[in-house]
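Re-run with default settings, no changes from the original entry. Doing this only to confirm the output is reproducible before filing.
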Amino acid sequence: MSGETEVDGMRSDLSHQATAWLVQLDDEPDNEALRVQFIDWLATSPAHLAAWEETDRVSGLMSAIGPLFQSEPKMSASPAQAVRLRRFPSTRTLASLAMAMCLAWFAVPYLALQLRSDEITGTGELRVVGLKDGSTVHLAPTTAIAFSSTADGRALTLLQGEAWFNVAHDKARPFRVIAGDSTVTVLGTAFSVRRKESGTDVSVQRGRVAVAKPDGTRRIVLAAGQSLSLSADKATRSAIRPDRVASWRDGVAIVNDQSIDEVIDRIRPWYGGYIIARGPGLKSRRVSGIYDLRHSDRALEALARAHKVTVSQVSPWLRIVTVG
């Protein structure tokens, strides 16, 4: 009996934790850090997921909300019982509401991004966009752009993600790519730009570009076969084979001495769910290799086999990558 008591106590504790999360998230709907902490808690163990809902599938969670909202207390229930039923939803109701709330917070920023962009791609989607000036832009998955053209110049804002450009020459109207605080000015070229939380990556396949640092202290010119990783306090130039620029267009990531964290960031836009990465070696461990982006689970498995990384499948839509 003591064993059953311990199990019941653990379930009760997880139920209290889940309820506490619901209250916090409801009080601070715009708190991005809190949202990330919640997802991290949710992914810690299957028991945490079970505290929110019995089923793994997002579609099941979303469909459960409809009838739960429509249900009313039975006529035979006393007024006091009806009040209690309204005030204290079932565990299943709380689970569905909390997960729906979490998913909505991820959906709202996406809808806002749609309103700002001229073109946007979804998970695992590649798209080729022809601009009015004759330039061509290849969009990687989960990428958004906005384009404007005037008599003085052409400007494309990379709102999110990564793109490869083949720019039509027009000396009188320079072409600029704005990615966060960085501006890439085209000097006649084909190149790629990737926007990250930490800064901007630029790789040149043909021709030249000029990249302005975020602080505006200098202008860095890149030629074919050169790449630049730019952040607020650091600029790292390196060499790259021109035929490997924007290899994601072929559905592969060619990695050369990058951190495991960077490799996972390459895989995320192709995965139809969430990948949570953790562990002391996430940023310090360096890897090289070729990864199949079109089959993201295979890419994670290849990373695990070659570099002693653990990949846990918590649900059909959630993977936890642990790096020792």
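The longest strand covers residues 182-195. The chain has three domains: 2-116, 119-244, 251-323.
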